[in-house]
Design goal:
mainly alpha, single chain
């Protein structure tokens, strides 16, 4: 378990505030804007996603070459994705929910912060889905079912 310093906490708060501001500025906290993009009627969000991709790519590729360690300590690590059936099912469910509602987790939280109380329904659905996934992912012994062996 790692200990978090005040500097770590302030960095997280600043990053979250910047992310939320960017979502609000781009219009992603408005489901009708996202749905318009998903229906190929408004391509403005493509510029937002392209900009985010470019910044992330530069950060992940260039920053480790310039600095020996991350600003807040630790080491740079590579992440290897592990694809499984559950990854595909979860991705499909996420995409269906995003397509139907026009909202994903980040914009839902930012929209709630901007006073859109309808986002509570989205966040409730996200929490229910996360809870269900946790229940389904538990080993059989944790669910009270007898283990085979």
């Amino acid at each position: 378990m790692t200990s978090h310093t005040l500097k770590d906490s302030l960095a997280v708060i600043a990053a979250g505030a910047l992310f939320g501001f960017g979502l609000a500025l781009s219009g992603m906290i408005r489901p009708e804007v996202v749905l318009s993009f998903l229906q190929f009627q408004d391509w403005g969000l493509m510029l937002v996603m392209g900009g985010a991709f470019t910044v992330a790519l530069a950060a992940y590729q260039l920053f480790p070459r310039v600095r020996a360690a991350p600003l807040l300590g630790g080491i740079f690590e590579g992440h290897t994705a592990q694809m499984s059936r559950n990854t595909f099912i979860g991705s499909a469910l996420f995409g269906i929910g995003w397509g139907l509602s026009g909202v994903c987790p980040g914009p839902a939280i930012a929209g709630l912060g901007a006073g859109n109380l309808q986002m509570l329904w989205v966040l409730l659905g996200l929490a229910a889905g996360a809870w269900l996934q946790g229940v389904l992912a538990r080993p059989a012994s944790a669910n009270g079912a007898p283990q085979e062996g």
